Amino acid sequence: MAGLVDFFTDAEAFLVAGPEDLGPVLLRLIQGERQAKVHESAFLTPLWNGNRAGYPYHKKETVERAFVEAWQWLQNEGLLIPAPGSNGYYCLTRKGAALRNNADLDAYRHGNLLPTALLHPKLAEKVLPMFMRGDYDVAVFQAFKEVEVAVRTACKLDDELVGTKLMRKAFDPETGPLRWEGVVFSEREALAHLYAGAIGHAKNPQSHREVLLRRTQAAQLIVLASYLLEEVEETFFVKNHDSKGQG
Question: Between vectors from CA 188 to CA 184 and to CA 193, what angle results, nearest 5°?
C-alpha cells in the first residue's frame, strides 16, 4: 500500500511542500486505507521505520509539524473530521470521500478559491462555471460585462456608450445618474474613478487582445466585479425608492 514516502522520497521534498500540497496527497492515502477510521500515526510511523536515509531522525520534529499542518488543512477544508466516538481517530467527510480523482480535487480547489457566498447571483450563475473550467480571462471579461450592462440599464443610456466613457457619464460627480448623494465631491469623484478604472483595467484589455491571468488574479477581479455590481443595484434601488417617495 502506498505511503507518504512514495510521494516524498526524503524529508527535504516533504518540507518544501506546503499544506495545500501535502493535504491532497494525504487525502489520496486516506481514501486508500481499508479502514473507515484512520490515525495520524498510520502515515507518520512508516517514515521513521527502517532507518530511511531520506528521513533522518533529527528532522522528525520538523517533518511531523509539517504533517500536522497538512492534517489541519484537510480539517479546515471540511474534508476530514474526528471520527465520532473514536478518540484520536479521524474519518473522511462526505465531501472528502466524494473527491475520488485529481479532476474532482482540482475542481474543488478552484471553486473553493472563488466561493459562491462572495458572488453576486448573476456572477455565480454565469461566471463561476467559466472559472471552474479554467477559462479565467473569459470569466473576468464576462463579470465586468455584467457590471457594464447593469450600469447602462440603470442609467438608461445608449448601447453605443461603453467602457470607461459609460462609467464616467454614469458616475459623473456632478451630473451622473448613479453618483452618490450626500457625500463630498471628492468621494463622488473617487467612485467614478473606481468604476472607470476597474472597467479599463479588467474588461477593456481583454476586448482587444489575449490576456493571461493566474487563477488567484481572476478570482480577485471577479470578487471586485461582484462588489461593483451590487453597489450599482443598491444605488439604483435607493434612487428609485427616493424618487417614488417624493412623487
Answer: 140
pTM for the structure as a whole: 0.59
Distances (CA, A) of 12 to 16, 47, 53, 55: 6, 13, 12, 9
Cα→Cα distances 234→125, 169, 178, 228, Å: 20, 18, 10, 10
Q: What are phi and psi of 224, to 5 degrees?
A: -60, -45
pLDDT tens digit string along 84-110?
987 889 999 998 888 877 766 766 666
Q: Which amino acid is at 62?
A: T
Nearest 10 degrees: Cα torsion 208, 214, 219, 225:
-20
Q: Which three cell numbers stand for residue 21?
A: 500540497
What is residue 21's predicted lDDT score, i.e. its pLDDT?
85
Contacts of 111 by beta carbon, 8 Å cutoff, 6+ apart: 128, 131, 132
Q: Name the DSSP class of 91.
A: E
The length of the chain, given as a count of residues: 247
Domains in the chain, start-ordered, CATH in brackets?
A: 4-100 (1.10.10), 114-246 (no CATH)
Give the number of other CB atoms < 10 A from CB of residue 7: 17
pLDDT single digits (tens) 67-81: 999 999 999 988 999
Residue 35 has which C-alpha cell? 479502514
Q: CA dihedral defined by 174, 175, 181, 186, rounded to 10 degrees?
A: -30
